[in-house]
Amino acid sequence: APIFKEIELEQRMSEATAPGSRFPLAEAHDPDSGRNSLQSYELSGDEYFSLAVQAGPGGDQPSELVHLESKTGGITLKEALDFEKISSLELEVQARDGGELFDMAKVKISVTDVNDNAPELTVSSALGEISEDAPSGTVVALLHVEDRDSGANGEVRCSLDGGIPNPSFALAMKEKPGGKKQPELVLERALDREKQSSIDLVLTVVDSGEPARSGTVQVRINVTDLNDNAPVFSKSVYEARVAENLSPGSLVLQVRATDADAGTNGRISFSFGNVPDYVPSLFAIDSDSGEVRTVSPLDFEEKKKYVFGLEATDGGGLTDHCEVQLDITDENDNAPEITIRSVSSPVPEDAPIGTVVALLNVNDPDAGENGQVSCELSSEAPLSIVASSGGSYKVVTASALDREQASEHRVTVVARDRGRPALSSSTEVVLEVSDVNDNAPVFEEAWYSAYVAENNAAGALVLRVQARDADAGANGRVSYWLAGGSAGAAALVSVEARSGALYAQRSLDYEQCREFAVAVRAQDGGAPARSSTATVRVFVLDRNDNAPRVLWPAAGPRDAAGAAAEPFEVVPRSAEAGYLVAKVVAVDADAGRNAWLSYELVQASEPALFRVGLQSGEVRTARAVSERDAAKQRVVAVVKDHGQPALSATATLHVVLAESLQEALPELSERPAGAEAAAAAAELQFYLVLALALLSALFVLSVALVVLARLRRA
Fold first, then answer.
1. How many CB atoms neighbour CB 6 within 10 A?
2. Conformational region of residue 178, where left means phi above 0, alpha means psi within -120 to 50, and beta covers everything else
3. Which of 5, 195, 244, 601 shows a CA-CA span of 20 to 30 A to 184?
């Protein structure tokens, strides 16, 4: 069987040894060889090991802390050791061969301590309180020190403020039952909370290890107050200037006092001292803030200065006193008063500049600058205000008045004093402007045009003119008169004096008078009267009151029996269609469309043989003359104008179908005049042609004159 060289082996191991470190054990040898020789090292079951534990149960098991190498028997550290948990470790190791024979050895591992724990310091109260009148030697706090290390590593010493001595506190060691000593924090000398209300101390504990470890704790000691200080006003005398008429509740001043004590001992309340009864009725003091405010309005005229006392009391009953002196200043609390003594209204619009229209009195009961008053006019008007003596003012005209632009002026007189802020008052002055006749009537138009149809009834309205006068009353009352015009125009129209209406005196005839002009004068009722003139042009419009008048063919001279000789024309039987037989000539005394004439064939012996030109009035053959046509033909044409209603006239023409006048004579033998009539007809035909030419020229000239007249009127 394998045999260990040493049955019991002891190994020392520091707790600072790093995991993974290897430690050899006693070796075992086996005289056998081959399969029966030493094969491996093994740890025995858990029942074969024991632990020496300081930290109590719950430590790691040996198999979790170390690893046994099966071939060499060496031990490797798996995790860091902690002396405070395991101070020693015992293992049983088996050496086995292939034949299942083994030997056992005990291995004891002793863990050595290192200074790996800093000392811990706890205080019974980290926020202790101590009265500022506590006597010396008073224990402020108890200290408890603990170091988990052992030996010199667990020996500790305490110090205050890192070894720097504190004049008010010290550390003392108190021996407890059993001989153990406990450090205490003790008061060395008296405290003053007003100088230092809290004290911060640093307690340090250091062990004896190498290297040494330490721990600190901060202790705050609060010093509780004692009412050992009275309140103190910041001033013994408070002075302020206060304006009169302050609204109730207005701040006058604020007193301030301090108390070095704290809490209720330092809480100050303010109140009146021994003061007259009227002071609390005028002033009030806030007990907490020290603000002095008004209770009712102050009046400079009643009292100019107030003096009274105040006191400050702390929570412990200690007091201090001060004096308040208030000077009341005068305020501009009276607005100027305006009195109107007289107003001259109405004022004529031609009043000269500088005319006095109103007298005023202004008074301000205040004094100094508060009673100095200036006046002005706030409205835009041709007026100004001038200061006079003794607070009197005059309102005068600053520029010319014009009733037509403004018949009334309303101005506001503003009186303002020189106080700060300035007070003002105002009153309104109403000034009426009376009229003078300074404006002539003005027609709406300088030229009027009127259009009247002829044949009007006498008294018909032609036109109404109108003139306006900016003046008032009689100065603005306008009447109308005729003041001349075209020759004879005054006999054609008349004007109504009040309304300006023009009426026709009689019926007008376009053919006699086509236009005329009259001058109308408008005159006001002022003294002296003013007037202006306008021209009225009256155009007479044509009406269709004249029927056309046939100039040719016209009836010849009458014989002894009273029968009129009728005109005739000879047309050869060889005449073709379009042969000019004659031309009906007619005129119309009207104008325009009323004078436009048209011609129509209304009756004929052979209606198909003749036609009449619509505009020219020419009678022509509508077809060639045949042998079957009667030798004597009668043609009747009507002449119409274009008026409304249209008027007309008829013209009768006798036509003889013959190759010559000699051939036609037998046809005309039945006529009463015989050869003389034929000669007269020939002579008449010559004059008719001449008259037709003259009338055509006259017609063209008339049309040209009408066009020129229209253009001129336009």
1. 13
2. left
3. 195
Q: Residue 140: what residue type?
A: V
Of how many residues is the chain composed? 714
Q: Which CATH class is domain 442-541?
A: mainly beta
CATH architecture of 120-224: Sandwich (2.60)
Backbone angles phi, psi at 95, to 5 degrees: -110, 120
Residue 79: count other Cβ atoms within 10 Å of its Cβ.
11
Tell me how far apart the alpha carbons of residues 666 and 395 are, in angstroms, rounded to a whole number: 117
**Residue of 292, 306, 294, 319 lying closest to 233 (CA atoms):** 319
Burial grade of 590 (CB within 10 A; 0-12, 13-18, 19 or more): buried
How many Å apart are CA 237 and CA 251, to the nearest integer?
Answer: 18
Nearest 10 degrees: CA dihedral of 504, 510, 511, 515? Answer: 80
pTM here is 0.42
The β-bridge partners of 214 are 206
* Cα distance between residue 626 and residue 378, in whole Å: 110
Query: Could you tell me where the DSSP H helices lie in 371-527?
Result: none
Q: Which residues pair with 656 in a beta bridge?
A: 570, 632
Mean pLDDT in residue range 663-671: 61
SS3 600: strand
Q: Dmax of the chain from CA atoms?
A: 211
- C-alpha distance from residue 194 to each of 200, 224, 497, 540 (Å): 16, 10, 113, 124
Bridge partners, 387 (sequence order): 393
Rounded distance between C-alpha atoms, residue 355 and residue 395, angstroms? 8
Rounded to 10°, the helix 661-668/675-713 angle is 100
| CATH code for residues 337-434 | 2.60.40.60
* Tokens coding 708: 């020129």
User: Is the omega angle on the peptide bond into residue 528 within 30 degrees of 0, that is, cis?
Assistant: yes
* Close Cβ partners of 457 (under 8 Å, ≥ 6 residues apart): 504, 507
The answer as to CATH 2.40.50.1020 being correct for domain 549-666 is: no
Instruction: Summarize pLDDT for 70-124 with one digit per residue, the tens.
Output: 677 777 777 777 777 777 777 777 777 666 667 677 777 777 777 777 787 777 6
By C-alpha distance, which of 121, 116, 159 is closest to 142? 121
- In percent, how much of the chain has pLDDT > 90? 28
Are the C-beta atoms of residues 625 and 639 closer than 8 Å to each other?
Answer: no
Token pair of 18 as six digits: 């790093």
Query: Both tokens of residue 168?
Result: 């008010």
Sequence ranges of the chain with CATH classification 2.60.40.60: 8-112, 120-224, 232-329, 337-434, 442-541, 549-666
Each residue's pLDDT tens digit, 35-66: 666 556 666 644 333 333 232 334 445 556 77
Residue whose token pair is 């020189």: 418
Two structure tokens written together for 357: 């229209």
- CATH architecture of the region 232-329: Sandwich (2.60)
Nearest to 254 by CA among 277, 284, 231: 284
Closest CA to 143 of 177, 170, 182, 176: 182
The three-class DSSP label of residue 629 is coil
Specify the pairing of strand 531-541 against strand 447-453. parallel
568-571 and 648-657 beta bridge pairing: parallel
Parallel, antiparallel or unpaired: strands 283-285 and 648-657: unpaired
**Superfamily designation of domain 8-112:** Cadherins (2.60.40.60)
Find how far residue 234's CA is from the centre of its chain: 53
Residue type present at position 210:
E
Q: What is the dihedral of CA 558, 562, 563, 564, to 10 degrees?
A: 30
Strand partners, 494: 503
Q: Which long-range contacts link 447-450 to residues 24+ away (Cβ below 8 Å)?
A: 447/534, 447/535, 447/536, 447/537, 448/520, 448/534, 448/535, 448/536, 448/537, 449/536, 449/537, 449/539, 450/502, 450/536, 450/537, 450/538, 450/539
